[in-house]
Amino acid sequence: MSLFDLPLIPDVPVHGEAEGYPVRRIFCVGRNYAAHAAEFGNEVPDSPFYFTKSPASMILSGGTAPYPPGTSNYHFEMELAVAIGAPVFNCKAEDAMAAVYGYACALDMTRRDLQIAERNKQRPWDLGKDVENSAVIGPITKAADFGAVAKQTIALTLDGATKQSSTLDLMIHNVAAIISHLSSFYHLQPGDLILTGTPEGVGPVAPGNAIEGTIEGLSPVTLTIGAPA
User: Helix, strand, coil shares of the chain as percentages rounded to 5?
Assistant: First the structure.
């Protein structure tokens, strides 16, 4: 018996399955496209680095989320999400892809002004990154149905205008390298999502904006920005 009930975290729909994918943890890779690092004057990292979003910050594609409090510079970031489907710990890159269950389009919504302010003070990025409704996840396509992560286009439109357009092969650290590296610090398990970073072209949103993110071979992710709440 609990003192109170927690809101349910929605399972992510999976193509071809009646049951959804429950989310356990959300890891996010920072600065994984060189052009995105450059647009903010940041160095390209030698190895992957991470921040996290709590599953409570996750919503499914297709909804409306209010413009969040405490920011005047809320940004979109379009990303490939990797869904882990098997336990993996301290694995080699050549063995990493066996742990992948599937892939999805995802948005890493960011209070950019707070992220930068905290970073400049050498503080954690939580206020900028772990924002309510900020991890927006589209339906998962199983790895076998998607195929190899290669030169698929990754793009985002804001009210129909293209803002981000790149290809997955331009990730600095590919999916296998990320899983290998991250699994040396965590016992990754089914239910863990990894957002693999965003290409250049990120920018602000305002109430009323409609976002659509696409990756070739995956279902799109969509989000409407609502009034502040």
Answer: 20, 35, 45
